[in-house]
Specification:
Helix content is about 65%, strand content about 0%.
Length: about 70
């Protein structure tokens, strides 16, 4: 994920939280192609994935949901 430039606040949180694509895929339970699709279409993130991002990033779930 280091060669990728975040374009939204949620992408910025993901970029800071997960050091590699592999780590993000493992924590969110998706493949790399699905991860790329989720970066483009953030509204497709599941509630469980949002909770994981919230827990890992230490950003409130409500704030993360508002970013979508």
């Amino acid at each position: 994920m280091r060669t990728w430039t975040p374009k939204t606040e949620l992408q910025e949180i993901l970029h800071k939280t997960y050091k590699t694509k592999e780590e993000a895929c493992l924590r969110l339970g998706v493949t790399q192609p699905t991860l790329r699709k989720l970066f483009v279409e953030e509204e497709h993130l599941t509630y469980g994935q949002l909770k994981t991002i919230s827990k890992d990033s230490k950003v409130s779930l409500i704030k993360i949901i508002r970013l979508i």
